[in-house]
Input
Amino acid sequence: MSLLRKFKIMHMRINGFYGGKARWWLNAKQYDEKYNQNYTEREKKWAYKHGFLPSVVERYGINDDNYEDFISLYDYCHIFPVNDIFRKWINDRVTTRDVLKPFAEYLPRQYFQLYKRDSDVQIIKLLDCPDEYEDTYEGILQLIQDKGKLSIAKTLGTNFITLAYENGQYAIDDEIVSDEELINKIIDSLGILVIMEYVECGQATKTIEPGNANYLKLIVYNKYGDNPKVGQAYLSINASKQYSNHEFFYAEGTTSMGNEEDLDSKSDMQAKDTEIDQDDDTIGRNFMENEVVLPLQGQPQKVTRRVFVPICLEDGTFDGGKQLQGNRIAEITTHPTTNAPLKGQIGNWNEILNLVEKIGKFIPQIEYMGIDAILTDDGIKMVDFAAHPSYPQVVGFNEEMTDYLKLKVNLTKKEAAKWANKKKNFKKKSNTFMWIRLTRFLCPPKMRPLIYKWWHITMWDDLFSRNGVSLKEKRWAYKHGFLSYRLEQYGITEDNYKDFISDYDYRYLRHINNKYRVWLEDKITVKYICSDYNQFFPQYYYHISVRNGQKRIIPLMDCPEGFGTDFEDIFRLVEKVGVLACKPQRGSQGEGFYKFSYHNGKYYLNHKESSKDEVYEILNNEESQYLITEYIQMHSSLKKIYDGAVNTLRIIVFKKDGKTPEIGNAYMRFGSSKTGAVDNMGAGGMFVQVDIETGRFHNGKIITENNILPCSHHPDTGELIEGILPNWDIVKQGVIDLSYAMPQLEYLGFDVAISEDGMKLPEINRAPGYPKIEKFTPLTNDYLLYKLEQKRKKYNVTHYTKK
Output
């Protein structure tokens, strides 16, 4: 990558662009400049300056007088991601199916997921797979035989391949193959594949075009979180001879599920150009509908020319369509190959609009999305969702969607123009850029830059800590990847150090979990994913967030009836239930947490009396987004030891075979007057060992001035910190069941609060930290060393730093 290109990307990122979108726009311009010979240099420069490609300018007659009436490609890139972290809900078909469980009948049934784990292909049974089919290749073949026809697809997009079985023969898109050939194509694939129900287009669309690649496309927006609606709708109908596309089994740019890619996987155009940071992603599908986009390394992609038929939102009628012919948008009344009239009405249109509204209200965090649906003879199947719908270059955005997107563009530019934001972005991006360079130069492949930065910071702190370890011993520890206090903690010597996972290698393993770890990045997603185990989670009442410049209070799945969407409703709720938990949407170690209680006509935050105005000021802070949830009430035997915080267990669960969960470690944490309403050990809390078999807790310790000291009795209450944990069998079985409920994830840290009748989970960690006091058990240590060996083998690494 040239220095000029790096500067351009950095400049765009400082002005609020995501890296993937910045690269996309620059790639699109670079391709257009190099290969598009239909326009003069002056025409190209005018188009780029105003955020368009010259073909779009010509197509819509865009000029100096009217360009502000359109949404430019540049601006459409700039507003990404509209849905922030929640875009993951609809950028992956497996996640979408898990989140939208109540709407399963409107989604294709999903049976198996296949992806690469370590050196093997992992087969996972999904929610709709009947019990009689095993998670083996034989089970897959039997399912194909029994169903007769299935679809296989990547985890996003509408590129479906048909798997069929008829008259004793298997077929892939009508090409006869043996069972061995079919399985080998799956094994050789680099993609993350889902085997799912085959959805047949209904007769209504087949009368226009007989194929099965015709879609109802809906663009949905929910401006303030309380009124989701379809803003634009049209049919996308195939208009060229269909071709077999099962070469996607070998497509470039696809990734195994064990790599560093996120749920918003990069398009081919971006696959070779991940310069700034690895988790900065884009739409993962064609960004410009019906447009040929050339990856800089390749040839023009194969495109199926399509007809787009606008639909009236009032009654679902349509009359005429549009097709791109050359660079001219042609108005047509009949299908170009079948001559069928493009006139009619979508059946059950009001029911479709009502369904979309219900889905939007069920997932109010999603502000903007696209839905691709197939109209069947029995109703509708929503086969694909997009968190950033393709830019509709033929039908264009209608007036309603243009007004909404203009609002997003103006707000984005307003935020980007603030000097404080520019300064913050520059500091963040330049710092990340520096650590990326250092990491690539000094570290083994796939070491994450921020983890390498962490290693240096913690090593520096450890060097100057007075923990009784000599300078010589510290140098030896750092050379072998350990922090110095590990030497005594594990009894590490020159002879046995390879038997333990070092601090450096533990961080190098991050992330052990595949891309579905994003389920655990926030506290709302996991509630949807694990909704079948809702009894283990606190009640979720409200999500306080900023939506289009306004502070909005969005009711969540457990909000009681009769409570509205105002701050007064939150005060009414705490007055009714007595105590609530106020948690930052994202965060860890109790940072920003408030215990919000009401007693004898007074409000309290973290046990401190507070006025209504003080509470309001915290919850209404522009910089914070809070979840209002049930405050977990501990078991009385644990309250007796300390009741000022919710004292939690940390239970580490792993799946060495990728499927079967085992409890590797368990320890208890108690808060104190120093920690406030949380049990953070680093802030003065206590640690207690837990025997996994019996649930006995004992051997309390506390961290004081970077030293670990014995602590048999609680310093505030004087109670003995020892006993048998109540409901221990329920807790053990609960974390195992939840681990099975997330089959894609193999290494989890459960934070468990034991209640009178069972347990509650304040949080599940996607990458539990290396315990400072607790030691990894031999089982956990063995699993981590196995994962380290697999990663080193994959990237041919023999030493923890580059020699």
Remarks:
- The first strand starts at residue 110 and ends at 117.
- The radius of gyration is 28 Å.
